[in-house]
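Changelog note: in this version the structure field was regenerated for every chain. One regenerated record is shown below for reference.
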Amino acid sequence: MKTSTEIRRENLNILIERYGSIANLNAQLGRNRKDATLSQIRKGSVHSGTGRPRIMGDTMAREIETKLSLGYGWMDADHSNEAFPEDDDLIYLRRLNVSACCGASGVQNYEDEAYVDLMGVSRVWFKENISQIRENGYEIITAAGDSMEPTLKNGDLVVIDRFDTEITKRDGVFCVLIDNDLYLKRVQRVPGSLRFISDNRLYDPFEIRLAEVESRVIVFGRMVNSLNLKRYD
């Protein structure tokens, strides 16, 4: 499986081919035609300060998609099997291995192994089911276990808003890291505490005092939709 770094480099080559040269691509992006950044990323040149190969980060990938009118997440999708991919109207949602994003200190910066795959959805579907306000900040995780049944079943795909982390200001279903354990729970504000509720009544709710939330809870994001899978034996 290709890493996100490899895919972005391949897609950079596709764009260079599309516009004829790095200089022309720079011009389309509003950069100086002689800017060497894309060339260094393409070659994987070693950064003099870090000693690591230069890669394309999320900020640059999203900037390229916006300025070239590509669908959100286009730079992270594998287009190698397409003869010459045209601009599309898809938005790409990244599906994550959440465990790979979490460590002893909480939610960490993404590494390539955190990405499982991408799901392309139409912009119309996205606006109807996810958000009409913005396209960035939404990712997919996989529900595990039966604690949220019947709302969520084991293996269901859940769309979370990574920007919505104000757990003490609104109720909702949140993906949270509590004392280094990962949960997908319904959160309810009660006087002086937050109550974490499982939709499956076999699991008892538990509470954390508001004074302890900051030290014990790290919020990964709020669930905005789920792609429930109906299985047939």
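Spot check on this record: The two ends are 30 Å apart (CA to CA). The first helix runs from residue 4 to 19.
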